[in-house]
Design goal:
14 helices; 3 domains; extended; single chain; mainly alpha
Length: about 220
């Protein structure tokens, strides 16, 4: 029986005719929605892209319709069979860190969570900023506007000038902000489809008021 030691696994991968050959005996037996995308995963793994969530997004861009859990399980198998010896791990890209911060913590895999923890350790200001922003997002998503005052009281305790500016802006019309964070009503759809504003911007400096009036009446379904 062939040994499954890592050095031999690497040897089989290096001398294989295709990327799938070293895995075909071990991980076949039934078809999977992931099968057409495995060669791409193997190529990206060889390029040292080992983050399951990122690979999942790349597969979705290529037409993959399966779930993220399937990709994570397969990536874990790759990690066990062909681990990367990478003592000098590259720093993550800014767009990756931004994605981890704006994502719910339970949507991060272990590797992403660990990298984010290290980043926060090196930058306590970012850690505190993220904590405040996530707390505000909870108020907004759960319509807990009545708790806005408590949130505002906590922010000045940290030296975060950008958030201080934001809080000062909220204080100029705090009642309206509380209502916006509490009620299910929204004027977003109206503002986004305001035909009069659109017509005004289209015709500003181009035509006189008479033509503007006619276009407004036509848009409203009336007659000139």
């Amino acid at each position: 029986m062939a040994s499954t030691a890592y050095p031999q696994s690497r040897g089989r991968l290096a001398h294989a005719a295709t990327a799938d050959e070293p895995l075909v005996r071990r991980w076949t037996g039934r078809t999977s929605i992931l099968d057409p995308y495995k060669p791409y995963l193997h190529r990206r793994w060889a390029e040292r892209c080992t983050v399951a969530c990122r690979l999942f997004e790349e597969l979705r861009e290529r037409g993959y319709l399966g779930g993220e859990r399937v990709v994570k399980k397969y990536v874990q198998r790759l990690r066990e069979a062909f681990p990367h010896d990478d003592p000098s791990r590259k720093n993550p890209f800014t767009r990756d860190v931004t994605s981890w911060i704006t994502r719910r913590p339970d949507r991060l895999d272990d590797e992403q969570a660990q990298q984010l923890k290290k980043i926060f350790a090196h930058c306590p200001e970012l850690d505190r900023t993220v904590e405040h922003v996530r707390a505000f997002a909870e108020l907004m998503n759960n319509r807990q506007g009545r708790q806005l005052g408590q949130w505002i009281e906590h922010v000045p305790a940290d030296e975060l000038p950008a958030l201080h500016t934001f809080v000062n802006g909220l204080g100029q019309d705090v009642d309206a902000v509380v209502a916006g964070l509490s009620l299910r009503y929204s004027s977003g759809a109206v503002v986004g489809h305001n035909k009069i504003k659109m017509l005004k911007r289209q015709m500003f400096g181009r035509a006189n008021f008479d033509l503007f009036r006619k276009r407004v009446l036509l848009a409203a379904g009336g007659r000139s």
